[in-house]
């Protein structure tokens, strides 16, 4: 396990009219390198959203536009941690993001969707008291 503590590199992407907040666990190494969410070329996240909406996702601006147009927000459960690789199973010493503060700042959010079991488990461990609809999505990761 690496001794380095990694800080989450991105701010949440949320708009005043966001209705659904999509929460992952923590950015992959490729996402760190490419400075954006779900940036591993084999991750299906953006391809799935493109297929569902019909909107192109060829670059960062198009991805952000799609999120805004569909009233979707994007963030991760973990604000900092240690890890050896991009697998959720390698994440240790996790410090969770302040999800209640984000929900308070964006009161239009009415549902949370999790893109993996780790994100869902961390949410339930720390924020199960929050009265908000939750849905589990299959992980878009090739792992």
Q: Count the E strands.
A: 7
Distance between the termini: 19 Å
Strand order of the largest sheet: 3-2-6-7
Helical content band:
25-40%
- Roughly how many Å is the radius of gyration? 14 Å
Overall average residue pLDDT: 90
The secondary-structure element order is EEHHHEEEHEHE
Largest sheet: 4 strands, parallel
* Overall geometry: globular
- Beta-strand percentage range: 15-25%
Characterization of this structure:
- The protein is an alpha/beta fold and 143 residues long.
- 30% of the residues lie in helices and 21% in strands.
- The protein has 5 helices and 7 strands.
- The protein has a 4-stranded parallel β-sheet.
- Strand 6, helix 5 and strand 7 (133-136) form a beta-alpha-beta unit.
- The longest helix is centred in the C-terminal third of the chain and has 11 residues, at 117-127.
- It is globular and about 40 Å long.
- The two termini are 19 Å apart.
């Amino acid at each position: 396990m690496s001794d380095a503590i990694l800080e989450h590199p991105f701010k949440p992407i949320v708009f005043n009219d966001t209705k659904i907040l999509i929460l992952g666990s923590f950015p992959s190494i490729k996402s760190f390198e490419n400075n954006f969410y779900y940036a591993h070329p084999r991750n299906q996240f953006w391809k799935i959203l493109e297929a569902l909406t019909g909107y192109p996702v060829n670059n960062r601006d198009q991805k952000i536009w799609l999120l805004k147009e569909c009233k979707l927000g994007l963030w991760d459960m973990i604000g900092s941690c240690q890890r050896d690789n991009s697998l959720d199973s390698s994440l240790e010493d996790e410090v969770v993001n302040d999800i209640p503060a984000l929900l308070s700042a964006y009161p239009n959010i009415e549902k949370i969707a999790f893109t993996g079991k780790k994100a869902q488990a961390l949410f339930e461990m720390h924020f199960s008291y929050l009265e908000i609809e939750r849905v589990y999505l299959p992980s878009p990761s090739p792992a």
